[in-house]
């Protein structure tokens, strides 16, 4: 059974980890006794409880569960949050590149910033304790636990850097002298994380090599190596720095040549291990997530685990259900979705399209049974997340408990393609891209859509452009796009291009001139599933009297298009969220916001 694991309370109870004020009796109290730590971290069973507890802060109300996952990652050239066009909305402010330090969704002492540092402090205590008392050698339980703790600390830091840029670096447990510290260069943090993950990979088994790595809720060597590759690409990529704008790191240890070689080596290690693989179909990836299949060895490398009564993945992102019905006990889903152009940017033969982009919701139930119903062209939903694919009926009013897909094997293939292209050219990247596209197209289409298409990419630039496009087709709805666009130096350009494309769709001009203006629909024999005609380009012929019609040329207005990012703002000047005011105020003058926040 999946669950967020609870830390042994004797280890870290009572500590505050976010540069907030800490009660004087805590600072004056004697440190945790050496005897306690020696018992806990020399015993694999007790240490397991401590390491499992590193993840617990993710499930807190204003942490990953209810704030960070629902709001970080929007808006991009493929995903937007539907709060974006709500004037004055504090939720919308988080997505339109105009976030304020006093944002009332995030400016709280238990927000994700605080909970990330709580998790980091727990990891620091575990790492120190296991190193001091545990003799953590490769092949031992305590060695594996050390590797897990190093990896989970890296997850928290990776997400901190992704959202805030430079942040305080805490790699030892807090003491009275380190209670208040300033931000560190993210370059230094990246180097530490890359080193830590290199060590962790020597300690943690491959998927299914040990009982603990038989579940995607526990970290394994494939995930560690994939995460190390992801961080190497991010560390060497473009990003906004204080005072000198968007650039690559100038640290020679984080050069493109070094980091891309590291990323390619790590990806090839995962690929050659044979311990993980693409699922046979794209739909299978997402059915398994919604069915809560947590067996390792498939495509999922690691998922953030949520208990049935915690987590808001479907609550936030699923195809919208307007009422309690035959599939769910909560009327939720649909706070975000694909941009309306994305469906039309897919190749019509691409099997990922209809999984990623859904043009309907589940309407108000009659006698507890609802039907699919079309929504407007401005409102699409992520079909990767569906209550109707669950095996469990959600009864909680606030949470669904479905895990968050943090990394999957498809990303390893695409990172390998990108790194190989940069280092060795398009021909070296082609096999990785072909493998990913083979899954996306049926066998009858593969000669044209896979072999001919990839073989035509003969230059480094054409292959890079194809990888950027492939990333959109593969990962729409997974909130991976924002960091990718940032590290490619494409965030502002792609967002401006997205506004232009939506305007073209609105006016049915340019690349969208042949998008139909009327949809036709009827219900299949189950009387709940829509049969839709008119979604594909050029489908303009009335299919007959058995179909009803719906206008498909209104609903996408200028205000919605402009809400992708605030007018007058350059997204490249607002790549990060500001540190929330409560943490600035309680930092004893150590923390400041950059980027003119």
Describe the structure.
The protein has 597 residues and is mainly α. 41% of the residues lie in helices and 7% in strands. The protein has 23 helices and eleven strands. It has helices at residues 9-12, 24-28, 34-41, 44-52, 64-71, 90-93, 112-133, 141-164, 186-200, 221-236, 256-273, 282-290, 313-317, 342-345, 353-356, 409-424, 426-440, 446-455, 460-475, 481-488, 491-507, 558-562, 581-585, and strands spanning 79-81, 239-241, 245-247, 300-304, 336-338, 360-362, 372-374, 404-408, 518-523, 530-533, 548-551. The strands form five sheets. A three-stranded antiparallel beta sheet has the order 10-9-11, with no helix packed on it. The chain has a two-stranded antiparallel sheet with strand order 1-5. Helix 8 (141-164) packs antiparallel against helix 9, helix 9 (186-200) runs antiparallel to helix 10 (221-236) and helix 16 (409-424) packs antiparallel against helix 17. It is globular. It starts with 8 loop residues before the first helix and ends in a 12-residue tail after the last helix. The model is unreliable at 1-33 (pLDDT under 50).
Which SSEs are present, and which pair or pack?
Layout: H1 9-12, H2 24-28, H3 34-41, H4 44-52, H5 64-71, E1 79-81, H6 90-93, H7 112-133, H8 141-164, H9 186-200, H10 221-236, E2 239-241, E3 245-247, H11 256-273, H12 282-290, E4 300-304, H13 313-317, E5 336-338, H14 342-345, H15 353-356, E6 360-362, E7 372-374, E8 404-408, H16 409-424, H17 426-440, H18 446-455, H19 460-475, H20 481-488, H21 491-507, E9 518-523, E10 530-533, E11 548-551, H22 558-562, H23 581-585
Antiparallel strand pairs: 1-5, 2-3, 4-8, 6-7, 9-10, 9-11
């Amino acid at each position: 059974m999946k669950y967020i694991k609870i830390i042994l309370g004797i280890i870290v109870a009572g500590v505050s980890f976010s540069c907030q004020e800490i009660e004087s009796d805590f600072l004056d109290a004697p440190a945790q006794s050496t005897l306690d730590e020696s018992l806990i971290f020399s015993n694999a069973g007790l240490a397991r409880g401590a390491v499992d507890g590193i993840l617990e802060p993710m499930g807190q109300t204003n942490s990953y569960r209810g704030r960070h996952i629902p709001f970080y990652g929007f808006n991009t050239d493929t995903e937007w949050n539907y709060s974006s066009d709500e004037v004055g909305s504090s939720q919308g402010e988080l997505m339109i590149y105009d976030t304020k330090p006093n944002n009332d969704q995030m400016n709280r002492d238990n927000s994700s910033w605080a909970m990330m540092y709580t998790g980091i402090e727990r990891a620091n205590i575990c790492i120190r304790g296991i190193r001091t008392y545990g003799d953590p050698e490769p092949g031992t339980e305590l060695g594996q636990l050390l590797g897990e703790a190093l990896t989970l600390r890296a997850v928290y830091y990776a997400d901190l850097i992704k959202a805030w840029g430079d942040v305080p670096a805490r790699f030892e447990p807090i003491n009275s002298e380190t209670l208040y510290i300033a931000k560190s260069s993210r370059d230094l943090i990246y180097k530490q994380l890359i080193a830590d993950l290199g060590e962790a990979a020597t300690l943690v088994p491959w998927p299914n090599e040990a009982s603990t790595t038989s579940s995607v809720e526990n970290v394994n060597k494939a995930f560690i190596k994939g995460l190390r590759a992801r961080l190497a690409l991010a560390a060497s990529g473009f990003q906004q720095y204080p005072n000198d704008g968007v650039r690559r790191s100038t640290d020679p240890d984080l050069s493109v040549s070094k980091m891309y070689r590291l990323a390619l080596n790590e990806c090839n290690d995962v690929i050659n291990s044979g311990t993980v693989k693409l699922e046979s179909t794209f739909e299978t990836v997402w059915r398994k997530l919604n069915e809560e299949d947590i067996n390792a060895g498939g495509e999922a490398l690691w998922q953030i685990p949520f208990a049935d009564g915690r987590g808001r993945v479907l609550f936030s992102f699923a195809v919208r259900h307007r009422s309690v019905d035959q599939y769910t006990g909560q009327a939720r889903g649909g706070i975000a979705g694909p941009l309306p152009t994305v469906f039309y940017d897919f190749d019509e033969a691409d099997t990922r399209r209809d999984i990623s982009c859904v043009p309907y919701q589940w309407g108000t139930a009659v006698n507890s049974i609802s039907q699919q119903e079309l929504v407007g062209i401005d409102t699409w939903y992520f079909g990767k997340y569906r209550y109707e694919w669950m095996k469990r009926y959600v009864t909680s009013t606030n949470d669904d408990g479905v895990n968050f897909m943090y990394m999957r094997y498809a990303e390893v293939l695409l990172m390998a393609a990108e790194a190989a292209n940069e280092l060795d050219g398009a021909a070296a990247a082609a096999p990785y891209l072909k493998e990913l596209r083979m899954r996306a197209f049926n066998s009858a289409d593969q000669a044209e859509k896979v072999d001919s298409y990839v073989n035509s990419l003969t230059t480094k630039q054409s292959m890079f452009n194809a990888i950027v496009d492939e990333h959109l087709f593969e990962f729409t709805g997974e909130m991976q796009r924002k960091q990718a666009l940032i590290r490619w130096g494409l965030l502002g350009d792609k967002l401006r291009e997205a506004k232009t494309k939506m305007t073209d769709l609105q006016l049915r001009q340019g690349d969208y001139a042949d998008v139909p203006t009327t949809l036709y629909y009827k219900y299949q024999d189950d009387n709940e599933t829509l049969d839709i005609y008119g979604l594909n380009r050029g489908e303009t012929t009335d299919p007959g009297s058995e179909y009803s019609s719906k206008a498909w040329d209104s609903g996408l207005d200028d205000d919605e298009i402009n809400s992708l990012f605030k007018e007058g703002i350059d997204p490249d000047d607002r790549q990060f969220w500001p540190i929330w005011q409560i943490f600035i105020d309680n930092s004893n003058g150590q923390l400041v916001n950059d980027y003119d926040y």
